Amino acid sequence: MSGLYKDESLEGAALTTAAFEQFLGSAGPLVVAIGLIFFASSTIIGWSYYGEKCFQYLFKIQHC
Questions:
Q1: The pTM is what?
Q2: Which pLDDT tens digit goes with each residue over 25-48?
Q3: Rounded distance between C-alpha atoms, residue 7 and residue 60, angstroms
Q4: DSSP states of 12-64 as a string?
Q5: What whole-number distance in Å separates Cα of residue 18 and Cα of residue 29?
Q6: HSE (CB half, 13 Å, CA atoms) of 25?
């Protein structure tokens, strides 16, 4: 909607931040940063749990 995707100098998070800033003003980058923090932390927690369960399965460890 912002049309910023046409600007080839912007990619990834910079493009997203610029688009949110265009619509939300100075709160745009803050919204993107908070969303990125939540996404990264939930991904770390999820993969940690998944890795633990795989380890338990591979080495036949029973956990309460």
A1: 0.71
A2: 999 999 999 999 999 999 999 999
A3: 53
A4: HHHHHHHHHHHHHTTHHHHHHHHHHHHHHHHHHHHHHHHHHHHHHHHTT----
A5: 8
A6: 0
